[in-house]
Design brief:
Strand order of the largest sheet of chain B: 6-7-8-3-9-10
Low-confidence stretches of chain B: 342-352
Oligomer: heterodimer
Helix content of chain A: over 70%
Order of helices and strands of chain A: HHHHHHHHHHHH
Mean pLDDT of chain A: 87
Number of helices of chain A: 12
CATH topology of the domain at 68-122 and 152-297 in chain A: MetI-like fold
Distance between the termini of chain A: 41 Å
Strand content of chain A: under 5%
CATH topology of the largest domain in chain B: Rossmann fold
Number of strands of chain A: 0
Strand content of chain B: 25-35%
CATH architecture of the largest domain in chain B: 3-Layer(aba) Sandwich
Shape of chain B: elongated
InterPro entries (chain B): AAA+_ATPase, ABC_transporter-like_ATP-bd, ABC_transpr_MalK-like, ABC_transpr_MalK/UgpC-like, Mo/tungstate-bd_C_term_dom, NA-bd_OB-fold, P-loop_NTPase
Largest sheet of chain B: 6 strands, mixed
Mean pLDDT of chain B: 89
Family (chain B): Belongs to the ABC transporter superfamily.
CATH class of the domain at 68-122 and 152-297 in chain A: Mainly Alpha
CATH architecture of the domain at 68-122 and 152-297 in chain A: Orthogonal Bundle
Structural class of chain B: alpha+beta
GO molecular function (chain B): ATP binding
Keywords (chain B): ATP-binding, Cell membrane, Membrane, Nucleotide-binding, Translocase, Transport
Protein name (chain B): ABC transporter ATP-binding protein
Chain lengths: ~300, ~350
């Protein structure tokens, strides 16, 4: 038996041997599906089949020249930008509010988190009721204060469907932003505000010169993370509108689903999925670059 | 610079009296130290002077102005915090410039002031660094420089040396005092460290349980403690307290010496001690033991310069003495000091 810590000839083999099970699982769960999708994207595959005639990059060419794809890409950006920017603003505002001392602060913090904890399906069903043109509370309230004169068809109109979907998404996920920002806000030493107070800094100056620089790295990181997660969000949109009306809420993940399981064009679905994957990889690279820089700064 | 008057100030949190009816005057250019154990109310008092806490009652006058309800920025004060409260994302330069920037000053004036303040505390060469790239001592000086740039009437310092290591604290204390004399600043300084308090303060305010126990120069507080709390809080080891019928006798360890040390001197109070332990501390020896009657087996500590020859052994009796005028007497009920020196003791004791 080796009593010292020097590397023995057999160590390397043992290391590889002990790593093999997890490597195999990873390979099975990540590499195999990815390679399969790449394979499918290069073939003309219909529903129920695993292969078809090889057609090279034709599926990609189709995607990049089809109006449906570009609409979905545009929708995805509207959905992501709309959701994330609103989540970040709402989250920051509420985190700042919850960071102050007031009666029942603990209760308020718990209530704020509720949307994040409610299962998506439940949330979507409740929101569909609220959006309903006849029995929905949203129309009822807007009409009773006189903001609209006749009921609006929120989810079934091309002009309001995306907005409605974004509202639900923001409602569901802003608590995540609140938690992240509240954590960093609480780490700012109170003394810094007191020192600023003595130095004569106004409330805005304190926010601008102390709070903001302090929370900025976490703020940007949270925004990036939310961007990635929102980008491939599927169930909220699918359950609310199914991508309609008239493709107005069809984002890339929805399009992949429609192409694959409604139009039975698995090859094209795979191509779109891979393009989506590529965009996400770029975003992830930005994220990891950011993390690395943040760690280096510590 | 300005005179500060604290008039019957108190602070009550819920049903806890943090500061209880404190009155104190800090003269123009004076360095006053608030000293006490943690929870004695010294920091709360300082924060009320700063305007970070509102007094429950009483008034604070800075210069000619009743400042009790003024916002901190309107009091013309500067404060150095225990953790320095430097802004981590700003360079030392910008940290020092901060008070000027928020006041809307620009350009040359800011630069001149920052360099002047940095020069005073000797950190000109570090101005481009961020706080995390500097040592504890350099941060402390930066905080000091930041407090200087606004020409405040009053400096408030909340344990500014407590985060430094022992060696650095010693030199920082010396620098701070030299600096205070040069700038002529009026300062209120909070610490729980008696060495710091004695070394820095023109006057020391000893606090306990939210109340002021004694205000005086370091000498007054050490030689004539106002009560048994001050007597035992100041001095290491603390003053020996000996319970006697009708009084509590106080003896500083360094005044309790072997009889042989006094030679033919008169006016001595002799005490015999059963020595239990001797500690050698280099320049001094600490001798632990219990006094024989009539001192009721009181446990005492004597502090003997190592240079004084003495034939004292653990487990044996030794003869000690104290000069009568170095003995202090306290009321056993109230703990308050009776007028020193001692010679009238007999007449006081006969009342008790």
């Amino acid at each position: 038996m080796a009593e010292t810590h020097t590397v023995q000839p057999g160590d390397r083999a043992i290391a590889y041997l002990t790593l093999t099970p997890s490597a195999a699982v990873l390979l099975l769960l990540v590499a195999v599906p990815t390679i399969t999708v790449i394979g499918i994207s290069l073939q003309d595959v219909g529903f129920g089949e695993m292969s078809g005639p090889w057609i090279g990059l034709e599926n990609f060419a189709w995607a990049l020249t089809s109006r449906t794809f570009w609409t979905a890409l545009k929708n995805t950006f509207v959905w992501v930008f709309g959701s994330v920017s609103l989540e970040m603003m709402l989250g920051l505002g509420l985190a700042l509010l919850l960071n102050r001392t007031f009666a029942l602060r603990g209760v308020a913090r718990a209530i704020i988190l509720a949307p994040y904890l409610i299962p998506t399906v439940v949330a979507v069903l409740v929101w569909r009721y609220m959006f309903h043109d006849i029995v929905g509370i949203l129309n009822y309230m807007l009409m009773s204060v006189g903001l609209i004169s006749k009921p609006m068809v929120w989810l079934a109109s091309t002009s309001t469907a995306m907005l409605s979907v974004i509202i639900v998404g923001v409602w569901k996920f802003f608590p995540f932003v609140v938690i992240a920002l509240l954590g960093i806000l609480q780490s700012i030493p109170q003394e810094q505000y007191e020192a600023a107070e003595i130095d004569g800094a106004s409330a805005f100056q304190q926010f601008w010169r102390i709070t903001l620089p302090h929370i900025l790295p976490v703020f940007l990181l949270t925004a990036l993370l939310r961007t990635i997660w929102t980008f491939h969000k599927f169930e909220i949109i699918y359950l609310l509108t199914g991508g309609g009306p008239l493709d107005s809420t069809t984002t890339l993940p929805i399009l992949v689903y429609i192409k694959g399981f409604a139009d039975f064009e698995l090859g094209r679905a795979a191509a779109i999925a891979l393009i989506t994957f590529f965009i996400l990889v770029v975003l992830l690279a930005v994220y990891f670059g950011f993390m690395k820089r943040a760690e280096a700064r510590q | 610079m300005a005179r500060v008057e604290i008039r019957n100030v108190g602070k009550i949190f819920g049903n806890y009296k943090a500061v209880d009816d404190v009155s104190l005057t800090i003269e123009d250019g004076e360095f006053v130290v608030l000293l006490g154990p943690s929870g004695c109310g010294k920091s709360t008092l300082l924060r009320m002077v700063a305007g970070l806490e509102l007094p429950t009652f009483g008034d604070i006058v800075i210069g000619e102005t009743v400042a009790t309800r003024l916002r901190p920025k309107d009091r013309n004060i500067a404060m150095v915090f225990q953790n320095y409260a430097l802004y981590p994302h700003l360079t030392l330069y910008e940290n020092i410039a901060f008070p000027l920037r928020v006041a809307g000053r620009r350009g040359d004036e800011v630069d001149k002031k920052v360099r002047w303040a940095a020069g005073l505390v000797g950190i000109e060469h570090l101005l481009a660094r961020k706080p995390r790239q500097t040592s504890g001592g350099e941060r402390q000086r930066t905080a000091l420089a930041r407090s200087l740039v606004r020409d405040p009437a009053l400096f408030l310092l909340d344990e500014p040396l407590s985060n430094l290591d022992a060696k650095l604290r010693h030199s920082a204390r010396d620098e701070l005092r030299t600096f205070q004399e040069r700038v002529g600043m009026t300062a209120l300084y909070v610490t729980h460290d008696q060495v710091e308090a004695m070394g820095l303060g023109d006057r020391v305010v000893v606090m306990q349980g939210g109340r002021v126990r004694q205000v005086g120069t370091p000498e007054e507080i050490y030689l004539y403690p106002a009560d048994t709390f001050v007597a035992t809080f100041i001095g290491t080891p603390p003053m020996n307290l000996i319970d006697m019928p009708g009084e509590v006798l106080g003896v500083r360890p360094e005044n309790l010496m072997p009889v042989s040390f006094f030679g033919q001197e008169s006016g001595l109070r002799r005490m015999t001690m059963l020595v239990s332990r001797i500690e050698f501390l280099g320049s001094d020896k600490l001798i632990y033991g219990a006094l024989d009657d009539p001192f009721g087996q009181a446990k005492v500590i004597a502090r003997l310069p190592s240079s004084v020859p003495a034939d004292i052994r653990e487990g044996e009796r030794a003869h000690f003495a104290v000069r009568e005028h170095e003995l202090r007497s306290f009321d056993p009920q109230t703990g308050l000091a009776r007028p020193a020196p001692i010679p009238q003791r007999a007449s006081v004791a006969s009342h008790g």
